[in-house]
Structure formats: C-alpha cells, structure tokens
Amino acid sequence: MMFSALLVAIIATISQWWFSHVITRTWLYPLWAGFLTALALGEPQNGMIAAAYIQLTYLGWITAGGTMPGNLMVAGVFGTALTILSGADPALAPTFAVPFSLIGILMNQAYMTINSFWVHRADKYLEEGNITGVRIMNYVPSCLTSMVVYGIPAFALVYFGGDFAQAALAALPQVAVDALNVVAGLMPALGIAMLLSFLGQKKIFAFFFIGYFATIYGHLDTMAITVFAVLIGILVYFFTAMKKPEPQQAAAAPAQDDDDEEEL
Predict the structure, then answer these.
(1) Helix or strand or coil: residue 71?
(2) For the whole model, what pTM was predicted?
(3) CA distance readout (Å), 30 to 34, 113, 251
(4) 220 burial class (0-12, 13-18, 19+ CB within 10 angstroms)?
(5) Contact, 81 vs 37, CB < 8 A?
(6) H or E stretch including 52?
C-alpha cells in the first residue's frame, strides 16, 4: 500500500502542477487523472468506470470569469481512489468526488496564494538579472507546493483511508445508501444538462439531434459518429468559406460604386 500511496501522491502532485499542463491538458479531466489513480491502485477496470461516472458529472463545468465551480483534478484523483479503497459501486463515485471537488476549491486557492510568493521572488531575481533564479522560482517551489497541498493529502487518503472508508461505508444506513444511489444517478444527468445548455445555439443544435438519432436508429458507434462529424465540419467550413468575398473583390466594390456616382 505504501508504493500505491506514493504513486497516487505523485499523480495528485503532477495533475495540479502548472508545468504538467504545458505538456498535456488531459490532467484536467477526471477520466484521465482517475484512470491513472486506478492503475496505481491496481484496479484499472473499476477505476475507469468510476472515473467515467465522475467525468459525466463535470461535462459542462467551466471556469468562467475567474470562478471555479469545482476542482476537477481533485475530484478525479480523490474520488476514484476513495471509491476503489472503499470497495463501493463505481456508480457511487460522483458522491465521493463532489465533496472532494468542493474542498479542492479551497486547496486551489491555497496553492495559488502560496505560489504568488514565488512570483514576487522571481521578479526580484529578474531585476537582478539572475535568469537561473527566475527559472528555479518558476519550477521548483510550485512543484513542492503542489506536493504539500495535494500530494500529501492524497498519500494519507490511500495509506490510511482504506479501512476508514470501508468502515464509514458499512456504517451508513440503507436509507443513506439509497439516497447516494439517487444522487449518483442525478449528477451525470446534471453534467449532461449543463453541457447541453452550451449547445443550445440555433446554428449547431440540429447537429446534436443528427448525432443522437444516428446513434439510436442507425446503431452507429462513437467512432463512426466522430468520423461523420469531422466530415460534416469540413464541408461546413468549405461551404462557408466559399460564400465569403475575396479581399480584392471586396476592396474593388466600393471603388466601382464611387465611379457610378461620379457619372451620375
């Protein structure tokens, strides 16, 4: 368990460290972060299912205007880990992930606040012409801060939380378990509904129904729908581009109108 806890701690640290997002943004999604956590815990199949349930919950969540409705990376790592450690049904994963996601907002605020000190220190090194110091301040302290804020709690959850999670789950009354099942069923629907709210534009809403009915009545799988969607996107792009006037024609049109006015 020590090795698994260390791996999960590393995953939690890297998923929040800004430099890992330069390499790939997939750390943002619970499906990827949760899957890596499941691999570290030796339960890739159940963990992938749990991560998929968590991903559905946050399909339509965005950080608009500086607001952060939830920490998706914390939800993916901590929610998947607790689901596996407790031996719970993967469908209950959102009920574990959502509280961690809300706590993750506070963790993110602490992480960003602490990192502001390194930024000021980097500014001072820049004024002194110390480029090496600037680079160190950009990489090393932020990684260590991520390890303290995210990695250590993840390690403690895996190393100490397995038996506690099982005991807490066993102590829940059946009414509470049934309520959790209801919430677990509603959360993915909420995530899909939030995503659909962004698709409610007249120009693109029809494409959603095309994909839906092609799946239901045409029995097409996800790959086939993706291929057709790409082809439709290419056709729409070319037909839209053909309708736009060329720059030379657009510039010549006003000049021709001026000549006509002079003749009149």
Answers:
(1) coil
(2) 0.60
(3) 5, 24, 50
(4) middle
(5) yes
(6) helix 44-57
Rg (CA), the chain: 25
State the alpha helices, DSSP H only, in the chain: 2-16, 18-23, 30-40, 44-57, 72-86, 93-128, 131-146, 152-171, 174-198, 202-216, 222-243, 247-263
Query: Does residue 65 carry a pLDDT above 50?
Result: no
Assigned token pair, 180: 């959790």
The 10s digit of each residue's pLDDT in 183-207 is 555 655 666 676 667 666 677 778 8
In angstroms, the Cα distances linking 212 to 39, 81, 82, 125, 229 are 33, 33, 34, 56, 12
90 vs 51: CA distance, rounded Å:
8
Tokens 């190393």, residue located: 159
The encoded tokens of residue 128 equal 């002194």
Tokens of 207: 């494409």
Contacts of 1 (CB under 8 A, 6+ apart): 158, 159, 162
If you ran DSSP here, which 8-state letter would residue 218 be given?
T
Ramachandran angles phi, psi of 58, nearest 5°:
-110, 25
